[in-house]
Amino acid sequence: MSETFTIHIDGQEIETVPGKTILEVALENGIYIPTLCHLSGTTNVGACRVCSVEVEGARSLVAACSMPVNAGMVIRTDTERVQKARRLIVELLWSSGDHNCLTCEKNGACELQDLVYRLGIEQPRFKINPPGYPVEDSNSMIVRDLNKCILCGRCVRVCNEVQVNEVLDFSMRGSDAKVGPAFDADYIDSNCVFCGACVDACPVGALTFKQARFQGRPWEIEKVRTTCGYCGVGCQIDLNVHDGKIVKVTGNRDYGPPNYGQMCAKGRFGMDFVHSDRRLTTPLIRKNGELEEATWDEAFDYIAEKISTIRDEHGPDSIAGFSSARATNEENYLFQKFMRAVIGTNNVDHCARL
Ligand code: FES
């Protein structure tokens, strides 16, 4: 059993264990501390300071997301000093970017917008001075608007630490600092594999899914949890549905294994086939040289009859079965069982072996 000790947050006595941050203990005990740069599952960098809290005896405010708890700590999360510091940080972030919620795809799901509202800021005290970067629109999947970037680094950490693609990083210094691939390349000209994790991690509208633009506001979208059908791994994903149409696919860390909210480019961006008018929706049987629509019963009877005839006339080894990586282990097991026990051949293979 690890040792426990007591700390106080906003007058509440809390028993906890070493190794946790102030933010973690606060969240576990239902105490709100705002965050922007914090991204669970990645390194705590303490970049934005929005989570500043007062710790008795400390010279200055401390970042709750990065400060480990110690025995006897007395923490205050909601004092005038803390609120003033948070307001200043948020005003500076607001004024240094182009945060026009009227047209921003993230309106309604933006963590900076939520903080502005929660802190009751009507206007920043500083002149709004966005950097004026061109919006990157050179690929069909992700739109990158660095004028909205707050340099929280969540995209950098998810790219490097979770996906381990190591495409994104900071470049330049001071007010010229920016995030992106090496040599300031567009995503499409970089090593980016378009997993989309950076878009999921972005707390503002700097990174958005291109296919989803103007396809539905966050509050109009229904998230439908499902299992990705592209391979047998079984990744848990959220289809974002508006008006019966999948507008984008997002991850959710809370779903846990096997993918913990992460996905590949196919699961992320390849769901438009669902609404394709070229999609096969019924079995087709070729009759007199023409493909004609058939029922499933007709199709199964046809297949069974043809396979039986071939086996009876030419022997079971004249038939081979080829299975798919899109199927589950259980389905592949059943398939090989069918080939061996029903057809009577060991001619069975799988596309993943190619
Ligand atoms: Fe703690 Fe940004 S959330 S410093």
TL;DR of this structure?
This protein is α+β, with helices and mostly antiparallel strands and 354 residues long. The chain is built from eight helices and 16 strands.
Question: How do the strands and helices of this protein lay out in sequence?
Answer:
Elements: E1 5-9, E2 12-16, H1 22-28, E3 52-55, E4 62-63, E5 74-76, H2 80-95, H3 111-118, E6 142-144, H4 154-162, E7 169-171, E8 178-180, H5 197-201, E9 207-209, E10 222-227, E11 236-242, E12 245-250, H6 265-269, E13 284-287, E14 290-293, H7 296-314, E15 321-323, H8 329-343, E16 348-350
Parallel strand pairs: 1-5, 15-16
Antiparallel strand pairs: 1-2, 3-4, 3-5, 6-9, 7-8, 10-11, 11-12, 13-14
The structure holds FE2/S2 (inorganic) cluster.
Structural category is alpha+beta
Helicity range of the residues?
10-25%
The number of distinct β-strands equals: 16
**Spatial order of the strands in the main sheet?**
2-1-5-3-4
List the ligand species. Answer: FE2/S2 (inorganic) cluster
> Strand share of the residues?
15-25%
According to CATH, the fold-level topology of the largest domain is Alpha-Beta Plaits
Q: What is the CATH class of the largest domain?
A: Alpha Beta
Cα separation of the termini: 50 Å
Mean pLDDT: 95
The secondary-structure element order is EEHEEEHHEHEEHEEEEHEEHEHE
In words, what does this structure look like?
The chain has 8 helices and 16 strands. With 354 residues, it is an alpha+beta fold. The chain has 3 domains: 5-78, Ubiquitin-like (UB roll) (Roll), CATH 3.10.20.740; 134-275, Alpha-Beta Plaits (2-Layer Sandwich), CATH 3.30.70; 284-353, 3-Layer(aba) Sandwich (Rossmann fold). FE2/S2 (inorganic) cluster binds at residues 35-38, 46-51, 63, 65.
